[in-house]
Structure formats: structure tokens, C-alpha cells
């Protein structure tokens, strides 16, 4: 006699992951034992941006980039997608939904603190005014997503593909956006105090009135960005490409 299961779709998928149903990690771009050569900070961050741009937004599907220790070893982990509808309905604070398919999902005004959406696909998703403090979007594909007025303190967006996203008025204090692609994004009025933007691409981004106090912009690209009224006190500008195209090294 077969008993019915009352587990939610997310719980069922977590069980599958625990049972080893997820495809094994695939190392990309490095031979075993190979150590990346150091060609200087600018080339280092350029390679990180190139990796981010060819991963989540490319034909290979979602890719999660993880930085492991001081050796800066980056792995590309291919992750199978989950059902967008079920994932959106069942997503709760602290849940893991790695590699979820959540395109155009409505997650606005939700408490999703600590949620793990690494390598998820969220193009066009609406998360406006949600509490996402401590959440992980590492390696996620988020083109055109709406994260305006969100609480994103301490969130992880490392290597996320986020062109055209709205982060207007969002709180990104101490968030990690290293190697993320934010070209054309709207960060006007956003709080980026103490944020990490190492190697981040912000071409044509709107940062008017943004607070970048104490932020680390080493290797970041701000070419064509709008920084009118932005606060940059104590921000680190090292190998940083400024809106006018010049390279700023004052913070090196």
C-alpha cells in the first residue's frame, strides 16, 4: 500500500539534492593543480567579469562562481533548474533554492532573509521591498529584475549577471557585488556603504545620490555611469575606470 507524501515541492527537491540527484560539479577554465598567473589587478578583475558575463547570461545556463580562500580558485558549478511556480510559492526565509527557475516570479514584499538563490534564473523577477538581508544570489542570472527598496544588507551577488536591474533605494550595506555585471542598472539613492564591488561592471549605471562611503571599487568599471550627488568618502578607487574613462588609482 502506497502512502501519499505531504512534502512541499521545495522539500522534495531538497531531498533529491541530499540523495545526490544533482549533477556533480564541473570545473571550468583550469587544469588540476593549475594556479592562476598574476598579471596585475586590472587583468585579474577583467577575467572575473569575462567569466561572469559568459556564465549566467550565456548559452551554458546558470553558473555559480565560488571564491575559495586566498588562492582565488573559482569553480563553475552547473545546476539543474527547478520549477519557477513551485519555487516562488514555497520560498521562505532561510530556504535553499539553488539553480531555481524563477523568471518573472513575483516575490515582492516578502521576508526572504538568508535565502540561497545561488545560480538561480531570475530575469524580470519582482522582489521589490522584500527583506533579503544575508541572501545569496551568487552567479544568478537576474537581467531586468526589480529589487528596488529591498533590504539587501550583507547579501552576496558575486559574479551575478544583473544588467538593467533596479536597485533604486535599496540597502546594500556590506553587500558583496564583486565581479557582478550591473551595466545599465538603476542604483539611484541606493546605500552601498562598505559594499564590495571588486571588478564589478557598472557601465552606464545610474548611481545618482547613492551612498558609496567606504565601498571597495577596486578594478570596477564606472564608464558612462551617473554619479551625480553620490557620496564616495573613504571609498577605495584603485584601477577603477571612472565615468569619463580615466583610470583612478588614488586608493591603491
Average pLDDT figure = 78
Helix content: 10-25%
* Largest beta-sheet details: 2 strands, antiparallel
Supply the CATH architecture: 3 Solenoid
For the terminal residues, how far apart are their CA atoms? 69 Å
Question: What is the CA-atom radius of gyration, in angstroms?
Answer: 18 Å
Estimated share of beta-strand residues: 5-15%
Write the CATH homologous superfamily: E3 ubiquitin-protein ligase SopA
Top CATH class: Mainly Beta
Tally of strands: 4
- Poorly predicted sequence stretches spanning 5 or more consecutive residues: 1-42, 51-86
Would you kindly provide a written description of the structure presented here, covering whatever features stand out?
- The structure is a single chain.
- The protein has 252 residues and is mostly loops.
- The protein has one domain: E3 ubiquitin-protein ligase SopA (Pectate Lyase C-like, 3 Solenoid), CATH 2.160.20.
- The protein has 3 helices and 4 strands; from the N terminus they run H-H-E-E-H-E-E.
- A two-stranded antiparallel ribbon has the order 1-2.
- Strand 3 and strand 4 form a beta hairpin.
- The longest helix has 14 residues, at 41-54.
- The chain is elongated.
- The termini are far apart.
- Residues 1-42 and 51-86 have low confidence and may be disordered.
Amino acid at each position: 500500500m502506497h502512502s501519499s507524501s505531504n512534502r512541499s515541492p521545495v522539500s522534495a527537491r531538497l531531498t533529491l539534492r541530499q540523495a545526490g540527484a544533482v549533477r556533480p560539479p564541473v570545473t571550468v577554465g583550469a587544469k588540476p593543480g593549475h594556479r592562476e598567473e598574476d598579471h596585475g589587478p586590472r587583468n585579474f578583475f577583467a577575467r572575473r567579469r569575462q567569466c561572469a558575463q559568459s556564465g549566467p547570461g550565456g548559452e551554458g545556463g546558470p553558473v555559480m562562481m565560488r571564491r575559495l580562500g586566498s588562492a582565488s580558485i573559482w569553480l563553475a558549478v552547473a545546476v539543474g533548474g527547478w520549477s519557477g511556480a513551485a519555487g516562488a510559492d514555497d520560498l521562505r526565509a532561510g530556504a535553499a533554492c539553488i539553480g531555481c527557475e524563477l523568471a518573472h516570479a513575483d516575490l515582492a514584499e516578502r521576508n526572504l532573509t538568508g535565502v540561497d538563490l545561488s545560480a538561480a534564473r531570475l530575469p524580470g523577477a519582482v522582489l521589490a521591498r522584500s527583506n533579503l538581508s544575508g541572501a545569496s544570489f551568487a552567479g544568478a542570472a537576474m537581467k531586468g529584475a526589480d529589487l528596488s527598496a529591498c533590504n539587501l544588507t550583507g547579501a552576496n551577488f558575486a559574479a551575478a549577471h544583473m544588467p538593467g536591474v533596479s536597485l533604486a533605494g535599496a540597502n546594500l550595506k556590506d553587500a558583496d557585488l564583486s565581479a557582478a555585471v550591473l551595466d545599465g542598472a538603476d542604483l539611484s539613492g541606493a546605500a552601498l556603504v562598505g559594499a564590495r564591488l571588486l571588478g564589478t561592471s557598472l557601465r552606464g549605471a545610474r548611481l545618482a545620490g547613492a551612498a558609496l562611503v567606504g565601498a571597495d571599487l577596486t578594478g570596477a568599471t564606472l564608464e558612462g555611469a551617473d554619479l551625480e550627488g553620490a557620496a564616495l568618502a573613504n571609498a577605495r578607487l584603485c584601477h577603477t575606470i571612472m565615468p569619463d574613462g580615466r583610470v583612478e588609482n588614488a586608493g591603491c
